[in-house]
Amino acid sequence: MFITRGIPLVNFAVASSALAFQVFVLYPWHNQLDAEFKSLKEEHIRVLNRMK
Fold it and tell me: Residue 22, CB half-sphere, CA atoms under 13 Å: how many?
């Protein structure tokens, strides 16, 4: 009886932890990677233009 009442609470805790991880860790990291890829692209274009 106690186990069946605890499963939804465990499910909620796991889902909340996963959402918090995505919002506070993965999303800012994605923005950082996006900025680094943009600067890498600009550097690549600059080098290609210099080689012409």
Answer: 6
Q: What is the pTM of this model?
A: 0.64
Residues in the chain, total: 52
Tens digit of each residue's pLDDT (9 = 90 or more) over 2-48: 788 899 999 999 999 999 999 999 999 999 999 999 999 999 999 99
SS in 3 state form for the chain?
CHHHHHHHHHHHHHHHHHHHHHHHHHHHHHHHHHHHHHHHHHHHHHHHHHHC
Helix (H) or strand (E) holding 25: none
Kindly list the domain boundaries of the chain, sorted by start residue. Answer: 21-52
